[in-house]
């Protein structure tokens, strides 16, 4: 049987620029880890996997995560649970039973900096109330599109969350500068390669450490710009599971943030 790693693709680039240069290299058809991670010190690193919006195809990765003893955080739009294209309440319970964190991502996925007053309070507090009524312990929040202002941040605190995730400026420091504005790596999009996701981790480790928070949306074959191929996610989960066995700490956002689960707060 031919290993996937010995299926090689020849890549030749010819550059004509005064002098003719021909560069030929052989690259594997599938990405392999860039370096021997045995030499990397993971002791100053944390990794979290987050999935935004609770779209139905996310249920696919439950098996990959369980097989590799990885637990993730799902930021759920409470008003969309069980509607076409979104995870059902029963599926969310399956994820929670597996040890994953269910977090809040508002009621309607509105842009919070364009939302004011009672509507803002409703989006942030009511989503937590709704998800807690379904039986989930809701500890952390993710700002839709990463957009927030001081009013939204204050309501996240007032509504009983212990932390909130943005979408930029990762890796985050340990401990975070502001638990209510957690920095994340850039969105994983359909042309994000496995090697790039691996580099987010290895480069943070080599740069002195930090908290590397990944943001996934769809898990599908190109159904959306914000998607990852199921096969690529499987490879990433397998690799991450191996690193975890070698000492890399992968936790849910809520586990890193800690704190006690506060009672629901009505908007
Ligand atoms: Zn979202």
Structure description:
By secondary structure, the chain is an alpha/beta fold. The protein has a single domain, classed as TIM Barrel (Alpha-Beta Barrel), CATH 3.20.20. Helix content is 28%, strand content 24%. The protein contains seven helices and twelve strands. Strands 3, 4, 5, 9 and 12 form a five-stranded parallel beta sheet that branches. A three-stranded parallel beta sheet has the order 6-7-8. Helix 1 links the parallel strand 3 (45-53) and strand 4 (73-76). It starts with 7 loop residues before the first strand and ends in a 10-residue tail after the last helix. Bound molecules: zinc ion. Zinc ion binds next to strand 3.
Topology-level CATH name: TIM Barrel
Number of domains: 1
Poorly predicted runs are: 1-31
What's the total helix number? 7
- Distance from first to last alpha carbon: 61 Å
Assigned CATH class: Alpha Beta
SS-derived structural category: alpha/beta
Bound molecules: zinc ion
